[in-house]
Design brief:
7 helices; mainly alpha; 145 residues
Length: 145
């Protein structure tokens, strides 16, 4: 009688019938040497890396900023946002004004915010105007929930 470990070593892989199917060999059947099926150290991330995208660098960022600043639609959108944020709705005290700003940003930048009302309400509840005046570097460092 064969032990379990010897039996497992003698299993036959039937790749021709169905991948990853194994069976116990028939009596007097020759058992082939096992094939190497592992992928080795070839990682999935290296295999799927896109070659059409440049590696991020300072020059790459500057290149895209130049493109951003010269595309007519982006320049027009930025001017419109500046008017909206500085002239028409400079504060964040009114939920209506915040809602207009959040909806506009969501549309211009395709942020896919599903409920702009909830985001606007959250900003309204934070009462952020005084902190924004202090400076942008000091404001985002605090977590709000």
């Amino acid at each position: 009688m064969l032990s379990i470990s010897l039996l497992l070593k003698k299993l036959v892989r039937d790749d021709n019938k169905r991948p990853y199917t194994i069976r116990i060999p028939l009596i007097d059947e020759e058992v082939p040497e096992p094939k190497e099926y592992s992928r080795g150290s070839y990682s999935k991330s290296k295999r799927n890396m896109r070659t059409d995208i440049s590696r991020p660098s300072a020059n790459e960022v500057l290149s895209y900023l130049d493109k951003w600043n010269t595309l007519e639609s982006y320049v027009a959108q930025e001017r419109a946002l500046e008017k909206l944020f500085k002239k028409y709705a400079p504060s964040n005290k009114s939920l209506d004004e915040i809602l207009i700003k959040v909806a506009t940003l969501n549309n211009f930048y395709s942020t896919n915010i599903k409920s702009v009302y909830i985001v606007a309400q959250h900003i309204h509840n934070l009462d952020i105007d005084n902190r924004l005046k202090v400076g942008k570097e000091k404001f985002p460092n605090k977590q709000y929930k």
